[in-house]
Amino acid sequence: MKDQLPYPYNQDLSAVLHRMNRRTPFSRQRLANDPVTASYVRAGMQLLRRHLGPGAQRVLNDPEDENSLGRPLLSFLSQRAVVAELANTPAPFTRVGTTATLRCSWRSHSDYIADLLNFGLWSLHEPALYDSRIAPDTERLLEGPEFVEAAHRLCYYDLTTIVDGPTFRLELIASAAAEGDDVIQEALAANHQGAMEPWKQVYQEMFLARGLRLRPGLNLDDFAGMLAALASGYGLRRISNPALVRIDSAKQRCIFGTAALALLLGCVERVAEGDAIGVSVEDAVHDLVYGQSKQGDQQSALPLPPHEADCPCTTGIAQPDPSGEGLLALQESGGRAFGAELDRLCGEQQPPEVREAAVALRERLTAHLPD
């Protein structure tokens, strides 16, 4: 009967059900994989979906007061409620049970709740990476001309999976109650690691295949964590107010895709031949804002000279009118550009120390010019 249960209830549940009421490891493993145990877990998951959504049922404590909405959090998972929910589980799950059998499987109801959280937050409970929709687009990240389109679809799949399932909503509640609770913290940590590890492998293969690398100071954990935070943030906004995050199902696009591509653009650079050290995110932003990277500040302390017509030379350093031929013309052009730049540095808009140094240099050069 265990093999007839749907995924993931047909898997080895002893990996997530740690508090079975048996003395030996063998007995605990056997009870964790009993179809009756799976039925109780399924009943609890159904209650989570019913009370947390999507499509959660809201009940007024006072039918005549529309502001008396009940907010039971996890109180809906009482032993009686779990047993009663067995009647609604589909075949081949067990549909009849008692609080006595439930207490026989878990020493206390808090143990049942802890294992239910472990199961609900288990990364394999709702596997995203193994979804048949996602596999083709992960391949397109590695090769072919549809990288951007594939990235948009993957973000669309990820966000809709978050919004349309109960796991993320359970994660929100568990996160709020995690402080000081080792059981919940361990379940959350295991869920995050299990969900991110396959994607980190995809990102690594994508970088290698596309000739890319993360900027200095970043690693795969950082990059995957930032993408996961974007997904969680948009998921939370979408659940709280669907109007805040529009999802275009026809085009399979959402703002999360644009944000992910922007993150990729900021955190990743092409591997340049012979370039052992890349440009950090901070230096790339400095380059964007100021037009030059901080790494090149020492080599290019002076900005590029303006066009000669825009800033004519007035120092008198330039040679006579150019002949337009050979080395003399080249020297003439360079002399005028240098003089124009020196004049600019002598201007009032420059910092005092720069202006004073430029004026002193101009005076020394002018003193050596012929009358």
Structure explained in plain terms:
53% of the residues lie in helices and 3% in strands. Strand 2 and strand 3 (253-254) form a beta hairpin. 21% of the residues are buried. Mean pLDDT is 81; it is low at 298-331. The chain has 14 helices and four strands. Helix 7 (147-164) crosses helix 11 (255-267). It is an all-alpha fold. The chain has a two-stranded antiparallel sheet with strand order 1-4.
Please count the helical segments.
14
* Radius of gyration, taken over Cα atoms and rounded to an integer in Å: 33 Å
* Major β-sheet annotation: 2 strands, antiparallel
Give the proportion of residues in helices: 40-55%
> Strands across the major sheet, in which order?
1-4
Strand content: under 5%
Number of strands: 4
TL;DR?
With 371 residues, the protein is mainly alpha-helical. The protein has 14 helices and 4 strands. The protein has helices at residues 25-32, 35-52, 79-85, 99-105, 109-120, 134-142, 147-164, 167-176, 182-210, 220-240, 255-267, 281-290, 326-345, 352-367; strands at residues 212-214, 247-248, 253-254, 268-270.
Summary keywords:
two-stranded antiparallel ribbon; single chain; mainly alpha; 371 residues
Architecture blueprint of SSEs:
Layout (H helix, E strand, L loop, with lengths): L24 H8 L2 H18 L26 H7 L13 H7 L3 H12 L13 H9 L4 H18 L2 H10 L5 H29 L1 E3 L5 H21 L6 E2 L4 E2 H13 E3 L10 H10 L35 H20 L6 H16 L4
Antiparallel strand pairs: 1-4, 2-3
Helix pairs in contact: 2-3, 5-9, 6-7, 7-10, 7-11, 9-10, 10-11
